[in-house]
Amino acid sequence: VWRSRTRYLVSVTASEGDSAFGSARRVDPVAVPVVNDTLALSDILLGRRGSGLTWRAGGFEVPLNPLNAFDRSDLVELYCGVSGLVPGAEYQVRLSIAPPSAPLSPVLKLQFQQQALDRRQVIQRELDIHALRPGHYLLSLSLVSPAGDQVADRSVILNISQGRNTSDQGPTALGQRPF
Known about the structure:
Mean pLDDT: 81
Order of helices and strands: EEEEEEEEEEEEEE
Distance between the termini: 27 Å
Largest sheet: 5 strands, antiparallel
Number of strands: 14
Structural class: mainly beta
Helix content: under 10%
Radius of gyration: 18 Å
Low-confidence stretches: 165-179
Number of helices: 0
Shape: globular
Strand content: over 45%
């Protein structure tokens, strides 16, 4: 619930399926930083279609996966907000997946140019992980300004289990959606 330009009241309600039982809690006001011209990324959300949980954010439906446990056959839905963009400018987007013990040795690395359409936008992509080995990975996302003078970075842990597909063909690419 919006309270002022930078303060929000948060209420959380939890229930189990169609059960009549649940719990509700009001959380202390949350301070939200004012958006300025600095290039910034929100936290990365990793979701899975069919998890039964979704978040509606500004016209987007974002699948959630609060346990952060993905089967190798799952498509990982990546969602991240971006602010401080210059409309019309081309930004370099870098995504890598690496073992946490070797973050500079990614098993998957992607880089592409993306044009900003507005000052604030969303990055939403699908990631096919069927060829990654089971384990814990560090997924890192970077956005670089056209002049290279601003870089925004975020990382999140990605947990992959064996799943139904046991082929081992190496990393695969991202399915792309508008940024």
